[in-house]
Amino acid sequence: xxxxxxxxxxxxxxxxxxxxARDGRPDLAELCLLIGAxxxxxxxxxxxxxxxxxxxRLAGLLPHGLHTxxxxxxxxxxxxxxxxxxxxxxxxxxxxxxxxxxxxxRRRRGLPILLSVVWIEVxxxxxxxxxxxxxxxxxxxxxxxxxxEHVLVDPFDFGRVMSRDDAELxxxxxxSYGPADPLDVVQRVLxxxxxxxxxxxEHRGVQLWSLxxxxxxxxxxxxxxxxxxxxxxxxxxxxxxxxELDSYADIIGAFDxxxxxxxxxxxxxARAHLN
Length: 275
Hints:
Elements: H1 13-21, H2 28-39, H3 46-60, H4 69-83, H5 101-107, H6 112-125, E1 130-135, E2 138-144, E3 150-154, E4 160-161, H7 164-171, H8 182-197, H9 204-215, H10 223-234, H11 238-252, H12 257-272
Antiparallel strand pairs: 1-2, 2-3, 3-4
Helix pairs in contact: 1-2, 2-8, 3-5, 3-6, 8-9, 9-10, 10-11, 11-12
């Protein structure tokens, strides 16, 4: 009797994240839930499915017959902000959970960008014209047409409608309130996680996986490869870090040979730790 073929190995979170990021129409919620799954395996599978169900449930609570941006903003504030208490506080910046969509939906607290993801995904499911707006020091949500009638709301403040003065103050003198690309939103979420982990030596592993996921995005700053190499050296992987330093130096050597030679020296110094 011929034995049955072996079961295929399940795809890793990283593989699923890479595939989702390269989809023609990236799903913002799916990518954010995969970040949560990478942070904590308990947030994968059923927990991620329940998060999607919760977004659907919240969308179903919005009333029918909404037409204007102001009506959508008021309804979202009533359901998400006042009704379910989604908001943020300064203390949320100290928690990794504030950057994980599954946890934000459970706690109803989070960073501005994750709360904005909740607003975007709930409103989108209900049929609202909605988009994220990446201001220099904050993240908010636009409802309506970016170049026409629209309002900006601040999910960190329960979905309060922002005045033009509010927006201009947060924009730091720029007047760019255009829609943020979903992959740019995901990259900013991962950057927040790296910033959270960087001053905490016990969480260098978090810093590493957040870098690894960022490097799986179709576009990302090349300097992140240098950051990853330095992190590997800091974590004691001298050979791996040195190899990545050399690789990065080879890439930039064609247009910045002086910096490339400096990085090659760093690679030699990393290998010297093994002597």
